[in-house]
Amino acid sequence: MKGHMRSTTIIVLSIALGYCGRISAQSETQQPQQPPPSGAASSTPSKTPAQAVGLFVYPQKEQDPTLQSKDEGECYASAKQQSGIDPANLAASTPPAQAPNAPKGGAVKGAAGGAAGGAAIGAIAGDAGTGAAIGATAGAVHGRRQQKKATKQAQQQTQQQQASAQQQNLDTFKRAMGACLDARGYSVK
């Protein structure tokens, strides 16, 4: 019996070591991917200032790409200064939206209403105190749920207002930059 256990153990260990050896050999033959050299050209060109804010700029007076890039950079800086809006950091340039007043005390109000209703039902059944306690508990739970729902709606409304204000700021910036580029002989869309 000992001989049989020993040979089974040896077989199991041999299989395990052989499997580990194959995994090790496979990982050695696979070469890790090397990042491209830092001097290599990137496959995606960097965006111009106009492209970064979503404007399409076309030269109307045969301006070369170097002059167009210079004009876009200057108009970007001018629009930022004139509008007071930094499109790279819209959240900071947008005043926070005022949160609507979410209702408070939903559990207390619900408990009071539930207690009154429960007391009335309990009086009919012959035990107003128990009815009031049950009604108060049910009313408190309902009041809390209503308050959470109202708070969630208020938060969603605030987020929508914030997103709308940011979009308005970006549109204002685009108009300022577009006017500058238009004055320099570009078609802006």
Describe this entry's structure for a reader.
Helices cover 70% and strands 3% of the residues. It contains six helices and two strands; from the N terminus they run ααβααααβ. The protein has helices at 2-29, 49-53, 65-83, 90-93, 106-125, 128-183, and strands at residues 57-59, 186-188. The relative contact order is 0.14.
Anisotropy-based shape: rod-shaped
The total of beta strands comes to: 2
Distance between the termini: 87 Å
Spatial arrangement of strands, main beta sheet: 1-2
Largest sheet: 2 strands, antiparallel
Count of alpha/pi helices: 6
The helix content is: 55-70%
Low-confidence stretches: 38-42
Structural class: mainly alpha
State the assembly state of the protein chains: single chain
Mean pLDDT: 74
**How do the SSEs run, as a string of H and E?**
HHEHHHHE
Task: Give the strand content.
Answer: under 5%
Radius of gyration: 35 Å
Topology, element by element:
Blueprint: H1 2-29, H2 49-53, E1 57-59, H3 65-83, H4 90-93, H5 106-125, H6 128-183, E2 186-188
Antiparallel strand pairs: 1-2
Helix pairs in contact: 3-6, 5-6
Q: Can you give me a brief rundown of this structure?
A:
The chain is mainly alpha-helical and 189 residues long. The protein is 70% helix and 3% strand.
Any key phrases for this structure?
189 residues; mainly alpha; 6 helices; 3% strand
